[in-house]
Give the backbone structure.
Amino acid sequence: MKTEDHELAEGTTLPDERVVRFEQLLDEKSELELTETMATVCGVHIAAFRVYLTVLNHHHSTIAEIAEILDRDQSTIGKQLQPLYEQELVTRYPRTVSSGGVRYLHVAQPLAETTEWLQQELYMWTDAVMTQLSRLGAN
């Protein structure tokens, strides 16, 4: 049976639903918490990752808009964006405003690419740890 454009196939997850699920995973308590893993392996702490998720849900947002959504100070958001820029999880684009100034708009890397990046980082980190452990056994 063909699915119409306005209908969803059974089991289909909308992008916003995936973001909500990712946020739930960040909050879950387990032996291996996702937030601790991301901070250790990727250098992205939970506060910065929440900024990433906010930018993902609010394309072309400014620091002021992100700060308002998260109810945080703009300088805090600016600091939390730095590791996201470095990891290329968020990109900023300058836009000239009518008053002659420049406003930076932020765009997040798609969630699927970010998930793949997190997996790659974890694999590389695991390999490095295993290599170090094998050197301990060889001594």
Notes: The longest strand covers residues 90-96. Residues 111-138 form the longest helix (28 residues). The chain has a mean pLDDT of 81.
